[in-house]
Write a structure and sequence with these properties.
Number of helices: 14
Order of helices and strands: EHEHHEHHHHHEHEHHHHH
Strand order of the largest sheet: 1-2-3
Shape: elongated
CATH topology of the largest domain: Rossmann fold
Number of domains: 2
Number of strands: 5
């Protein structure tokens, strides 16, 4: 995965420096396996090759949880604890909280002044979430404008790449348009970030639906081994295989994608053949999955137990990350104010 500077885009980092990645998550509580395989696993790989900024998107969380914003702060340490447990390294990645950097709000305001409303209204994710979250009143300015806040998050650190799933590509494209509009209105300052598509496997929860906290069907990284094994046993597999004597089909099994993520290819081939010959039943197959999952996640759970016993270390990671991120944000905003002419000192005369 590499980046090429696009014609006309300033190379802010300069030659010889690592390209910069930025991504974030809303604090909604502990991380589940969908979060791990869909995002965190990729973040780990990226931090080895790029200069990464990973942030807690607590302001974004308010766009849908504005009625109960007090709950958000309590979720932050749990989520960051999981980040550190899977191996995110504050020595390689800047880990910070969005609301600790007030410059994000200032840049969001400035971008909002010139972002056309039709850009926001045509955002397909906006329309999808309005339908998906129909039980919430999302006819708000904040929800309509959250892609502008995302643009401020990304461009504040002049990120060159944003790891996203295919459904988030329109957001990155809007960030590119906002960067382009700013650069054309004033002068070139921001790079146009690229969407780094992540191969997010289709992972379902224990009930066969999308793994989601709201569905109460999640397997959490912090689940005790016996709880995790129990949840694996409850997973829906091949609905067209009512009996063990019937041949199965891994490609339609809702649990099999977890096998692909936890077993070597040779073992996968063996299980696939045994399933199709009806020599391996779903109960035994899920037992194998639970064993592989617990073995692979044992180091993660061991680190989490450590951070649970040392919460001050999690706090210190955020304090240091906030400090580093804010220094960068202040430099960016000094440039922005210079470009738009808002850095003059006003002489007050009596």
């Amino acid at each position: 995965m590499t980046f090429e500077d696009k014609p006309g885009s300033p190379n802010i980092l300069g030659g010889g420096k690592k390209k910069r990645i930025l991504s974030g998550m809303r604090p909604t509580g502990k991380m589940h396996l969908g979060n791990y395989y869909g995002a965190l696993y990729n973040w780990l790989r990226l931090q080895e090759e790029y200069e990464c900024h990973y942030f807690v998107a607590d302001w974004h969380a308010i766009t849908t949880e504005y009625e109960n914003p007090r709950d958000i702060a309590g979720y932050i340490p749990e989520m960051v604890m999981d980040w550190l447990s899977v191996g995110l390294d504050p020595g390689k990645s800047t880990i910070f909280v969005q609301s600790a950097i007030p410059e994000h709000a200032e840049l969001y305001l400035i971008f909002g002044m010139f972002t056309p409303v039709p850009w926001l209204e045509r955002n397909p994710t906006y329309k999808d979430q309005i339908q998906e979250l129909a039980h919430k009143d999302l006819a708000t300015y904040g929800f309509l404008g959250y892609p502008v806040l995302q643009a401020a998050d990304i461009l504040m650190y002049k990120a060159h790449g944003v790891p996203v799933g295919v459904d988030q590509v329109p957001h990155v494209e809007m960030t590119r348009e906002i960067a382009r509009r700013f650069n054309n209105l004033y002068r070139p300052l921001f790079p146009e970030p690229e969407a780094l598509l992540t191969e997010i496997p289709k992972l379902t929860g224990t009930d066969g639906r999308k793994m989601s906290k709201s569905y109460n069907n999640c397997i959490y990284l912090s689940d005790p081994p016996e709880v995790m094994a129990q949840k694996v046993r409850q997973m829906i597999t091949d609905t067209q295989r009512p009996f063990k004597k019937d041949p199965g089909e891994p490609d339609r099994c809702l649990a099999f994608p977890f096998h692909r993520l936890n077993l070597p290819r040779e073992r996968l081939e063996e299980i696939t053949a045994e399933c199709r010959r009806a020599n391996l039943g779903c109960v035994d197959c899920k037992k194998l999955l639970a064993e592989a999952l617990l073995e692979n996640l044992a180091p993660v759970q061991e680190r989490r137990r450590y951070y649970e016993a040392h919460p001050d270390e999690v706090k210190e990671v955020l304090l240091q990350g906030n400090r580093k991120a804010r220094e960068e944000a202040q430099r960016t905003m000094a440039e922005v104010r210079e470009v738009i002419g808002f850095n003059q000192k006003i002489q007050l005369v009596k």
